[in-house]
Known about the structure:
The chain is mainly alpha-helical and 407 residues long. The chain folds into four domains: 8-57; 73-264, Lysozyme (Orthogonal Bundle); 271-334, LysM domain (Membrane-bound Lytic Murein Transglycosylase D, Chain A, Roll); 348-406, Membrane-bound Lytic Murein Transglycosylase D, Chain A (Roll). It has 16 helices and nine strands. The strands form four sheets. A three-stranded antiparallel sheet has the order 7-8-9.
Amino acid sequence: MRIAPLTLAALCLLPATAADARKPAETRKAAPAEAGDTEARIQALESRIMHLESELARRPLDISSYHLPDTVELCGQKIRTDDPDIRERLERELYLVLGDREQVVLWTKRARRVFPAIEAEVAKAGTCADVRYLAVIESGLRAGVTSHANAHGYWQFMSPTARDYGLSVDGGWDERADLAASTRAGVKYLADLTRSFDGDWALGMAAYNTGPGRLRNAMEAQGRKDFWRLDLIDEAERYVPRVLAAKIVMSDLQGFGFDLEVADGYAPEPVERITLRLGGRTPTLLETARQVGIDYRTLRRLNPGLTDSDLPSNRTFVLIVPEGKGDAARQLAGREPERSTETRTARVEPVRATGGSEKGRTHVVQKGDSLGSIAARHKVSVDELRKWNRIGRKEAIRQGQKLIVRR
Length: 407
């Protein structure tokens, strides 16, 4: 909360504590000035200022004391905050952000770890740095977030779009949770969308949220090309203002009452990215952590894109390990996995394939299995497994289920 500066004269009139205020005047101690000690008087005033600041800091935040800045821009495009409708939409999101201060603190702390990766890709692509605030709104700068619609990762990619932009989303490896790979794809996708809407970043970001087809249909039906003049579903209408609210607050944290900066956040860890391709039986993640010389939690934390209990088989993937562990990780490619009690042996049985005379095979689903890991183990695609076993896109497999894995 912005507080008008307290003058020394005003402070002289304030009691140091509430208890002092209740004491009779004759029982109070003489002020340092009365003793003629100027230095002691200044020290006493400084102490009282610190006390008042501490008291004010504990008071509830009055967010009404904060306002939109005079100028608001999105990727260099000025937003018309003098328009009453636009101003109200922006203020709604601004005050909602300020009302959840804990969330802003976490955004800011994660930003130190995530923003450098986004800024690096933005610099390579020569595009807009404000896209980093879109990632803030999409995922809160977290790797493992999955929406109700199964969008996933830092940039909340749906599987088809992720594949279109070169991300792996099956076979035990989901690059939507990989910061470097997903950011490269996210920055490019946003730039492509914006280019398709004649360079209008507000429309490009709105299309990222609601889909380019739906946005174009609304534009054609309403005869408008300005995001701020379109009537869209509530989520789409609020999306760009949310991005701007995150930018406004995180660009002026001290001005909005936060006693921290991005530099105070979680520092990026020094890591090595090792490209591997393993064939045959691959080690489990527990075995991998043991062989690399790190704990299991560290392996999972650094590699949120590893979605199975085993490393991916018969495909190229990236393993992230702490700095100095790269050589041990590279040895996985030529080392027989250590056997442990965690190792699973899948039961495979011959079976007559449906509708034909050729012999097929089945796989009995074990604990920790996924369609991706089963497909990789039997060198087939996830789509083939779904088709052969009539498994819908939203259906999950269960332990003990018998799946056809070869026709």
